[in-house]
């Protein structure tokens, strides 16, 4: 019974729905470590005012809100999430930025990206969602095709699974780096944020650029 309850709670964080999903969304939005994590990941991407940025699995939209403060009229922030509950909460949280034409949020999954998100994007990020993707190698490859030459990607993970230790994020970083490499990304590096548990973020670039290819 206890394991069933834990599984139900974890499932809400992966795909919030119904009343339980509303509660899960509130928890994710107000957890201090989640806010620190989102600000940190966005800072690693070095977003410029003219950038077009896409977040996969925006959840409570903490990163979306941070990004919307960094882009200007020539830039734009896009986000997708497969949870209608998260879309509703994120839309309310970003009402002003959406009305100003800085943010577009869409109900969609990473394996069914709408034509609206064909790109090219300057940066793509995802935080704690890669483990819920149906086929990460395929989806990472498709996202790279939507990045401009030299575009950046950031994949962050803060494992909170039962039995996780300080080594768990390091293992996750190795797995993410291998996936990115297999999908054709280059110039990878891993950064760590000292929270409890630690957060890792693996950054890479689309190598379809003479500058990157010859470096």
Protein model, in words:
This protein is α/β, with parallel strands linked by helices and 215 residues long. It has a single domain, classed as Vaccinia Virus protein VP39 (Rossmann fold). It has nine helices and seven strands. A seven-stranded mixed beta sheet has the order 3-2-1-4-5-7-6, sandwiched between helices. α3 packs across α4. It is globular, with a radius of gyration of 17 Å. The chain starts with a helix and ends with a helix. The model is unreliable at 1-10 and 210-215 (pLDDT under 50).
What class would the helix/strand composition place it in? alpha/beta
Instruction: Let me know the CATH homologous superfamily.
Output: Vaccinia Virus protein VP39
CATH-level-2 architecture: 3-Layer(aba) Sandwich
**Strands of the largest sheet, in order across it?**
3-2-1-4-5-7-6
Return the CATH topology. Answer: Rossmann fold
Helix content range of the residues, please? 40-55%
Shape: globular
Count structural domains: 1
**Helical stretch tally:** 9
CATH class (first level) name:
Alpha Beta
| Overall mean confidence score, pLDDT | 85
The major beta sheet can be summarized as:
7 strands, mixed
- Spans of at least 5 consecutive residues whose pLDDT stays below 50 are 1-10, 210-215
What is the number of beta strands? Answer: 7
In angstroms, what separates the terminal alpha carbons? Answer: 56 Å
SSE string, helix = H, strand = E?
HHHEHEHHEEHEHEEH
Give the strand content.
15-25%
* Rg measurement, Å: 17 Å
């Amino acid at each position: 019974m206890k394991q069933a309850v834990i599984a139900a709670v974890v499932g809400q964080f992966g795909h919030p729905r119904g009343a339980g999903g509303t509660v899960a969304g509130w928890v994710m939005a107000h957890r201090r470590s989640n806010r620190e994590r989102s600000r940190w990941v966005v800072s690693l991407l070095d977003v410029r005012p003219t950038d077009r940025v896409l977040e996969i699995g925006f959840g409570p939209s903490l990163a979306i809100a941070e990004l919307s403060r960094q882009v200007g009229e020539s830039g734009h922030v896009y986000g997708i999430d497969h949870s209608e509950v998260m879309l509703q909460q994120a839309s309310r949280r970003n009402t002003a930025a959406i009305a100003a034409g800085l943010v577009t949020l869409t109900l969609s999954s990473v394996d069914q990206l709408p034509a609206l998100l064909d790109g090219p994007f300057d940066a793509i990020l995802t935080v704690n969602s890669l483990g819920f993707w149906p086929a990460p190698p395929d989806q990472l490859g498709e996202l790279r095709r939507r990045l401009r030459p030299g575009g950046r990607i950031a994949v962050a993970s803060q494992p909170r699974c039962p039995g996780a230790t300080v080594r768990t994020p390091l293992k996750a970083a190795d797995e993410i780096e291998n996936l990115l490499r297999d999908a054709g990304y280059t110039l990878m590096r891993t950064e760590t944020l000292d929270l409890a548990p630690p957060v890792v973020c693996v950054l890479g670039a689309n190598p379809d650029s003479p500058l990157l290819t010859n470096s």
